[in-house]
Amino acid sequence: MVSRVNIASESEFEAVVGYSRAVRIGDIIAVSGTTAAAPGGTAVGGDDIGAQTREALRRIAAALAEAGAALTDVIRTRIFVTDITRWPEIAEAHREVFGEIRPAASMYQVSGFITPTLLVEIEADAVVLEQPRTDSNHA
């Protein structure tokens, strides 16, 4: 039987909204929208959208680690931003963190987040394969 594991973080919103930072069922892990929120309605990195992106990805990596995975297991990211014209800064941070992993990715502009100081929110999906695949493993 496949079990479900809910991963919590220190976000004050998890209990209020009723969600988990990440959920793992079998080999699949879904990480909720993750930001650079800091206490007092501020954001780690302030107005630096690249710094906020790096912090969100750091938090995603921590949630994945707690779920028994790593950034190398990420197959998709969804990036939500309040100012799409700043996409190069976000893209640079995403590329720095993921390097050659190169997950499928999408970026969307939204009107805002729950805390106005937040400029970016990222979701991630990961799959943990029990055995590394090689060309001889493909049918």
Characterization of the model:
The strands form two sheets. This protein has a six-stranded mixed beta sheet with strand order 1-2-3-8-6-7, with helices on one face. Helix 2 runs parallel beside helix 3. It is α+β, with helices and mostly antiparallel strands and 139 residues long. The chain has three helices and eight strands, in the order βαββββαβαββ.
Task: Give a brief rundown of this model.
The chain has 139 residues and is an alpha+beta fold. The protein has helices spanning 13-17, 49-66, 87-98; strands at 4-7, 22-25, 28-34, 37-38, 42-43, 74-81, 104-109, 120-127. A hairpin with a 2-residue loop joins strand 2 and strand 3.
